[in-house]
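Section handout 9: paired folding examples.
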Amino acid sequence: MSELVTGEAVALELRPARLPSRALAVLLDLVVAVAAYVAVTIALVAATASLDEAAQTAISIALFVLVLVGGPILVETLSHGRSLGKMACGLRVVRDDGGPIRFRHALVRGLIGVIEILMTLGVVACIASLVSARGRRLGDVFAGALVVRERVPVGQAGFVPPPPPWLAGRFSGLDLSAVPDGLWLAVRQYLTRMGQLDPQVGWSMAERLAADLAERTGAPVPPGVPPAAYLAAVVQERQAREARRAFGHGPAGGGGPMGTAGPAGSPAPPVHPAAAVAPDVRSAAYPSAGPGAVVRGERAVPPQQGGSTADRPSTGFAPPA
């Protein structure tokens, strides 16, 4: 990832394109440009057969400049940095601050590209791209531009793993109203990234998160249950309550202490996986709700005057899990 700072002092994390993808994009652009040049040349030669040799030579040079040099510049300017080859490879040319390029950027890149790509068969461009930390050729450096990847593969680390089957429904009576949003976020961060952690570090982190969660719910972790499995089961129970509240399949439940298990063998409602979160896991300090607040899903709702929260009808809104 490459961090770019915009004019509004906003840091952008972009993935610079490397030599293989850039070379493939340039090759596709050259194939299209040469095909267009050959087609236009054949038509022009047939149309100017009556002219003398000097006029035909001048027309050929002008055609070369317009098609092989002016064509890519025009395409990048109109498409804001996306030629045909770059669109096929998922690349885009942007400014150093992350904004779209303009005519002057495309002009500098195109003119220098004639020297480092066409005249040297791409040798200078390949050497410059390999030496540059962000894979830039000389045209990019002089134009103040950067080629970045638009299509980044999505990893599988954003999905919360399901708990063991023998823990299904075991925490259906757990009171989750006092758990703050920061603790839910930290638990999901750990569950989505625990496969990337050292086993000993991951185990100690799971123990701290499980202890914090047990302190907020007022019920200890059941003996014999691994802390990671306990966290996954509690998160699944919370998602199940949100699904029941959202789709109207019964009350959310969970108002009393742990110990009232749900009906055995009852199918669990559909639970959507949690969204991908940031890789950093903070398990020391969590933002807590104010005194007397009732936590609904992800947000803490302060108590209202004139009635309890149980008497108010549900709105059907459920924040994303």
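Moving on to protein 2 of 2.
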Amino acid sequence: MSVSKAMVLGASGAQLTPDEVSLYRDERPWGFILFARNCIELSQITDLVASMRDAVGRPDAPVFIDQEGGRVQRIRPPMIERYPSAAALGELYRQDEEKGLRAAWLMSRLHAFDLLKLGVNVDCLPVLDVPIEGASNVIGDRAYGFDPKIVSAMGKAAAEGLKAGGMLPIMKHMPGHGRGMADSHHELPVVSASRTELEVHDFLPFVAMKDELMAMSAHIVFTAYDKRDPATISPVVIEEVIRGHIGFDGLLISDDSSMNALKGTIGERAARIMGGGCDIVLHCNGLMDEMKAVVKEVVALSGRSLERAEAVEGGFRQPDDADEEALRAEFHQMVAVA
């Protein structure tokens, strides 16, 4: 079987088009990502995920989703209940550390109950960004709090809940999006904090969780390391900060290559992501012309990137035998108190 290409792709709608099936079959993306436009009803999501895997001939192909809770929750009621934001869970932690950690674990375990039955096996959690006062609201209440120690502890609990449920987490947005004064979906944030400030604040949660299998990069310029290029395409930041200071040796996936923080054509962006040191190019919007541009620039997984991808594929485990109804009742009692 041919080795997959180093990319995760989206789809345009609720079912695959013939062109999408053909593209996936011919170009062999390593994985896929779902958005709200792809999620109309539960049986349809299950069918869509199965058709994605069928197109690449890999029943274990990773399928990602951003199911954080709060304002970033791709599958919503009535399909799946609405979950609270990370900030709400962080507030629980500040009131009672043990309760906060349990709530973070429980919510992730419930995400796994919700998602794994649909075939989705990677949740883009935890958000390990540590905001500062005055930063862009693009992170905001998606963060557990303003204290890196709280973010580290809650992030670990969230990741463990997903793994207990048979899913894998992906840390984001490495090495930290919390200081961004702009929304990287629309423009490029530039952070001028010193190396020391970043090391004792922004980077800490990622250091604490450096042994996880996957992380997603940040489209942010850190002028202390690279005055021009955002982390996603900066060999300096990836080697010196992510692989070096943080010590992360897992699979590094770019944030969405169609976000406007990155400049140039979609193909140029994909090429620079590959050249900068990310292992996987992420492209989310499902636009066929853009996906065709991405696949021209992305090569088959090889070397350390292939080893990291294989480690992810081998990292899935069977869910525990937890009682969903009991855990859901426990969680609802906790968040009602919050």
